[in-house]
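Late entry, zinc ion complex.
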Amino acid sequence: PQTIYLKDYTPPAWLVEDVHLTFRLAPRATRVTSRVRFVPNPEATAREFFLHGEELKLISCHIDGRSVTPEVTPEGLTCDVPDGPFTWEAEVEISPETNTALEGLYMSSGMYCTQCEAESFRKITYYPDRPDVMAPFTVRIESDLPVMLSNGNPVAQGQGWAEWHDPWKKPSYLFALVAGNLVNHPDSFTTMSGREVELNIWVRPGDLHKCAFGMEALKKSMKWDEEVYGREYDLDIFNIVAVDDFNMGAMENKGLNIFNSSAVLASPETSTDANFERIEAIIAHEYFHNWTGNRITCRDWFQLCLKEGLTVYRDSQFTSDMRSAPVKRISDVIDLRARQFPEDQGPLSHPVRPESFQEINNFYTATVYEKGAEVIGMLKRLVGDEAYARALDLYFERHDGDAATIEDWLKVFEDVTDRDLTQFKRWYSQSGTPRLKVTEEWTPADASRPPSRDLAANPEAPDQVRGGTGTYTLTFEQHTPPTPGQRDKAPQVLPIAVGLLTPNGDEVVPTTLLEMTEAKQSFSFDGLTRKPVPSLLRGFSAPVVLEREASREERLFLLAHDTDSFTRWEASRDLARASMLGALTDPSKGPDRTWLEALRGVVRDTELDPAYRALLLALPGENEMAQTLHERGITPDPEAIHSTRQAHLQARAELWQANLPILAEEVAVTAPYRPDAEQSGKRALGAAVLDMQSRIDWGKTAARQFETADNMTQQLSALACLIRYDAKNSARYIRDFYDQWKDDRLVIDKWFMLQVSEATPDRAAEAAEGLTQHPDFDLKNPNRFRATLGALAMNHAGFHRADGAGYALLADWLIRLDTLNPQTTARMCSVFQAWRRYDADRQALIRSNLERIAAKPDLSRDVAEMVGRILA
Ligand code: B3K
Ligand code: ZN
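Prediction complete; structure with ligand written out below:
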């Protein structure tokens, strides 16, 4: 397979002035005719005429009305063309019904839909399928189906046809078409300049009652983007469609967002609080793309983070504003560590802006998305909120209608702030997670020196530090281990937010941003009377691994007193990690009781947000512990991690036994179900309490909750506890749940997933294998596949079972799926990325399974690239 390099970018030879498409829909023989007006690109160096096209049956083609015979290859076609502007017309035939890859035009439960990003428009017709070719589209759809949608505004419709026109020029990856027997949940939105926009969520008839929440989320997103970024919507209509078979969450096609039904449909009875929050965030994310992605798109796919990093950053700001900012930040860091850190520290590590690829779909990664968003957060921290706002205004003004680059993006910040961002740009080109070592030094009060004026003059400074002459110095050393293709790393710009606390808990130095640019750098604080306690990397101000072994006393102090909610949570996390590490390295050691006592105090503090307390309670997961051990040069033993973690949870439940009823009562929700932050937080804490109670009463309380819950959040958390702690009856509850929900695909996905993710390590592979034999298992549906085989990989100890049963089962199914759906298969291969963490026996087992996948005849380019990189 061919490798594409960023450095080889050349501008397109031909630009497109406008596009007319006609679709005559038929399941196995859809005819697509295109009429495209090409003009020479004055900026191009070559004139070669090449159109992408894959898996197309070419019926005819014409240039300026004359029939031509192009040279066709599996990748596209070339043709002799005039020197000046001309009109290209082509007719092709495609087969949506047999398209199981879910890329291009395909069918899902009787409806037609499309997915073109990144490079699948070429499976619909011949076209320059690259994001720097932008054009207005007019689309005519012909079919018997009642609803026919495309991008832009509706122009006209009649019996059996509909026409759409999108006046905004766009790249082909934003093209979309939907046709089906659909019903809509309608609404409207009046934009800041007073324009009325029609809004619709289109679903299959049985799903109409699951649209209201998504619609509210859409309206909130539209309003928020006006208020916070000054961005107004720009068409008369905005459509969202829910599709059951979809490779990812959703897609931001201009004016016609297509969603995995799991990312838009919700009702209290069938969706959890986490589902609601995710739906709100994805709807916002896709909507925000209208400006960051669609109006300003990417010059080429190497610039993917330009739209994805920024849009993730924007949707996280939105969620922080709609819900709780500290809770959102902590959840994002948990996610970053779970998904991005292992990626950045393993064989798949790549820069936020990759420099080469074989299959671009393999680069829709946590690094491009989540680290890409972290980079924007750092930039904002460094320049300040006000300069960030001005830079964004300039970005929208300067680049509206452009296919832009990271250079363009950074330039607006340089122009607005006069900063030189050359070094900062390393965040885009250098892969790997920086390690940050910290040492501290305290120079006590020196009587011969006059007291520090700054602090003495500061009326906010606590009394006991006034007049001090002591100096506290923090020395940081940054180091990024080598990553594939990048041996030597240069120092990065690290914004390090620190606060200093006095031993009685007052903040003597409020949050201050230190700007580290050297490999080793010191920062001093003077005018102090006593050695302060540092609160480091507040808000997780840079995506690094902090290497500092603080004492247990210091961590306990921060857990009790830190004024920054992130570092306070981090102290609790560090204590949990230290306790588990202690038990793992010395089996005679049990859980750290002092920590558990201290944590109990904080968790009982009713002044604190229940959602935040739930986060304080959550122990690092088994995968995170494996990663932590690996970072410390210890080979993780999955079984030992599992049993140690369980022992911790058990000890805590027993220790806190007397407090559980009171906690449960405190978080009980009596008001009607609402999926908002307040109620969800209480239910999250409630679920943690229920887990502890279930360890003690063997599922008695959980059974009651399972029977009486009026919402999926509580029904599912109860079922999880019953599977975990009531081995005798769990089969019955699992059956009851199935009987209750067998007609709801999204709930049955949960049912599949829970049985695998909650299975004991010795049973997980069998549970997954058994479910693949269930009549409702559907290899072609990515949600169901992930719910079954993806869930196995999430069951850390089950997946890594020493006999290799987990690896073999997953590899078997990946080999089967590759023939049908390369993209989902390739994505799932990443569960093997951390294989070198483990012992030699497990490594050998994983290697042989990866080699088995690699040896599959006709292996897709997607999977070949992934397995090749993982094994390299
Ligand atoms: N832009 C799409 C992702 C497309 C993935 C293609 N393999 C969804 C999003 O990020 O909003
Ligand atoms: Zn996106």
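The CA atoms of residues 193 and 798 lie 56 Å apart. Will revisit in the morning.
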